Amino acid sequence: MKDASADDVIATIRRFNRFYTGLVGALDDQFLGCDVTLPDARLLFEIATHDPAEAPLTASTVQATLGMDAGYVSRILARFEQRGWITRARGADARARPIQLTEAGRRAFEEVDGRQRAAVSDLVGGLDSVQRADLAEAMARVRLLLRPESVPGFAIRPFRTGDMGVIAARQSMLYAQSHGWGRGLEIIEGETTTNFLRNFKPGHEQCWIAEIDDVLAGSVFLTDEGDGTARLRLLYVEPFARRRGIGDRLVETCIGFARETGYGRLTLWTHTVLESARRLYARHGFASIETATHTSFGMPVQGETWMLPLGETGAAPGQVA
Amino acid sequence: MKDASADDVIATIRRFNRFYTGLVGALDDQFLGCDVTLPDARLLFEIATHDPAEAPLTASTVQATLGMDAGYVSRILARFEQRGWITRARGADARARPIQLTEAGRRAFEEVDGRQRAAVSDLVGGLDSVQRADLAEAMARVRLLLRPESVPGFAIRPFRTGDMGVIAARQSMLYAQSHGWGRGLEIIEGETTTNFLRNFKPGHEQCWIAEIDDVLAGSVFLTDEGDGTARLRLLYVEPFARRRGIGDRLVETCIGFARETGYGRLTLWTHTVLESARRLYARHGFASIETATHTSFGMPVQGETWMLPLGETGAAPGQVA
DNA sequence: CGAGAAAGTTGACGGAGTCAACTAAGCGGA
DNA sequence: TCCGCTTAGTTGACTCCGTCAACTTTCTCG
Q1: B166 and chain A: CB distance < 8 Å anywhere?
Q2: How far apart are CA B308 and CA B315, in angstroms?
Q3: DSSP secondary structure string, A2-39?
Q4: Is the CB of B70 under 7 A from strand D?
Q5: Fewer beta carbons below 10 Å: N end or C end of chain B?
Q6: pLDDT at residue B313 is higher than 70
Q7: How many domains are there within chain B?
Q8: Are residues A68 and A190 in the same domain?
Q9: Residue B290 pairs with which residues in a beta bridge?
């Protein structure tokens, strides 16, 4: 949460590396005194979880995905074949020998897989459901921050308990860091989210959360302003989640909901400095109708009111973009 | 964030294990083609970071802390000695041979250490300061949830940007899970934290955060009620952080601040079902003065008002316990 | 003093992992 | 069609990681 110096972060990561290496080592000790070694298990896992609908699995693809030595893989596969866990046919390409898991192979995999699951299950045995979810979230977050491409896709869902506070916190922190906006913004965030909860009109209002692997990646609110007007509020996407089209999907979700619900227009308040947000709104048919400078965030900033007419007479999305 | 089923969590952990094993493997590849192997580096790290003020380092302690084989360690140490990185004297116990790092050994360590730091630094090169802090926080959280004892101690600090929302979110989620309290509580949390921010009187009010290794572990608020009365609010400690005395320290901090600031009494509102919190308040001299049932949390619950007189005439803390 | 335990060393061994040489099969152009 | 190049996979040789058990030396405690 704090603005950690680069050295602190490096030390923390290295401490975590030592910790996790030890942990995985302890988890892997279960392979001792068993006829499956750790690389065996990794290979077996790769073979067993391969989607048969895809291209048949060859030694070279396994070798490449696991980053193992070709010769090493060859030897392990020979052993698997000898044990009757796999068969290797000749394919269209007579060099390649597509791997197929036998029934015995599947049983061996399930034995190993069950033991691994049990070991991990022991590890989290003392945790309640919130803590388990926290753990999964923290792990996904580590992956997202270190290798965003290793966690593709995202999901949109309605809000639930705890989302309001987290959204207020994240937006306050992100805007404080990127634009220096201060306590004024944090108060507005708190008020807006709390008021949303207090006045929530199911079916007429909603808050959607974008998630990547259960990590909160962005959000947007739609509230009823009266007179057939809906307001889009607090749109944001986490920095680690950008360039995935999450902002577009959130805005589309809002517009779709407003249209279905029968609102006549959709309005929103944004700021001139938020260039990418403004482009996003323009892309979806919004137009700026008013501009005014305020100092609610501790410094003068230029606010803008945007509008999107809905219904028959309104501009279709994309017309403006 | 969501109430993940046990199987989901196990699958996520195993995915993370695979991910992190690969990542550490990539980080360790830097040792290839260099005269220091990975276990060498671990040992060297252990020797170099050993506090000379403590008992002198012996092979057996290194072996025990790293969980390595005694024979293996012996061989590596022999190699280190041969390279002139360490010297081994005879200690009081003639069986033990205390290890001392030479100047050459320190240079070798710094070379290796610098390379490791550089590798990790590359890894986080693309992250801004908020993301780095998020990463460190997520890693610390994983450690805390899997091996709480591996992260000892805690710290108390005043609040900063983003804390309000996170506190409101965590308390809402935890009480929803443990007692089934619903949206009413979440609204109260949001209002209380936002009002605190809006009306914050520096020097007369404060919010303290307990942290374990930069992970939020609990919090407490003190607000001015007028007429010389201060109110202690929203005390909580994360489940993973319990049994460390964090609750006591937070309450002590509040009482100390209220006393110094010159408040005449400290009041608070709690609930009969929160047994451990009530014991905590009693331990610090608070007494229940009023009880009333309400339904703000979506079900009837019994609220209690507690009071601690401060100043000359007040009961000293501990008197009631 | 003697039994037993602890610190450390050494030999032997098996698994992990790499490297290079090799075979067999496909591919693509003259 | 042939020749050179590439790719899939195999094999032998090797190094390093890590364990086990036997062993020496020294300490501790009754």
Answers
A1: yes
A2: 7
A3: ----HHHHHHHHHHHHHHHHHHHHHHHGGGTTSS--HH
A4: yes
A5: C
A6: no
A7: 2
A8: no
A9: B305
